[in-house]
Amino acid sequence: DQQVKQNSPSLSVQEGRISILNCDYTNSMFDYFLWYKKYPAEGPTFLISISSIKDKNEDGRFTVFLNKSAKHLSLHIVPSQPGDSAVYFCAASSLNAGKSTFGDGTTLTVKP
Amino acid sequence: NAGVMQNPRHLVRRRGQEARLRCSPMKGHSHVYWYRQLPEEGLKFMVYLQKENIIDESGMPKERFSAEFPKEGPSILRIQQVVRGDSAAYFCASSPTDGELFFGSGTQLSVL
């Protein structure tokens, strides 16, 4: 039973446009959500997070939205840049964000 | 401030041999986590350690796998009698608290 799902394995957008990456979860105990970005041959790097008491968190070009009733979160990147091309992992946790349940990732390609 | 250091980057073992993966957390970080990533999948939590203590090993296979984080020196993930199914990328991460993770570049284990 996969508790965190990223249903789109890949996404391709044009430079300057918005990228929207989606993530669904099933465990209602999750109360902290994170997005990580991963380049080939490197470890994931933390991007942005949101706790369940909020429905939006913004950091520069990156915004994460949380819809608790739908158990859905999304990451918006605007404007998208070619350097954003990477695999994006959604992760969810309860109590300890270090012990997170990860989705399988979405490969984002931003075309110049 | 060096990041999380993992070595080796690549490790090749024959079936039945032992694999030892090392991880030095970021300076000042007392929480260490090990994750495994199989091809085309997300990261799966294995174990959470603090100095000299295993806090949560719920993601570790019951046999052949062990982890330690001694008072001095790096954290070690040890896999005895490796099998082909152990081939994966093993990521270590550290955190100053139980917040977001800082990942190393991973060890790619290949079992022949």
3D structure, described in words:
The complex is a heterodimer of chains A (112) and B (112). Chain A is mostly beta strands. Helix content of chain A is 0%, strand content 54%. In chain A, strands 2, 4, 5, 9, 10 and 11 form a six-stranded mixed beta sheet that branches. Chain A has a five-stranded antiparallel beta sheet with strand order 1-3-8-7-6, with no helix packed on it. In chain A, β4 (32-38) and β5 form a beta hairpin. Chain A is globular, with a radius of gyration of 13 Å. Chain B is mainly β and 112 residues long. In chain B, 0% of the residues lie in helices and 50% in strands. Chain B is built from no helices and eleven strands. Chain B has strands spanning 5-7, 10-13, 19-24, 31-37, 43-50, 53-56, 65-68, 75-79, 88-95, 102-103, 107-111. In chain B, strands 2, 4, 5, 6, 9, 10 and 11 form a seven-stranded mixed beta sheet that branches. In chain B, β4 (31-37) and β5 (43-50) form a beta hairpin. Classes of the chains: A mainly beta (112), B mainly beta (112). The A-B interface holds A 4, 6, 34, 36, 41-46, 49, 89, 91, 95-105 and B 4, 6, 31, 33, 35, 40-45, 48, 56, 91, 93, 95, 98-106.
Strand fraction of chain A: over 45%
| Mean pLDDT rating of chain A | 94
User: What series of H and E elements makes up the topology of chain A?
Assistant: EEEEEEEEEEE
Please summarize the sheet with the most strands of chain A.
Answer: 6 strands, mixed
Largest sheet of chain B: 7 strands, mixed
Query: What distance separates the N and C termini of chain B?
Result: 36 Å
Which regions of chain A contain 5 or more consecutive residues with pLDDT less than 50? none
How many beta-strand elements of chain B?
11
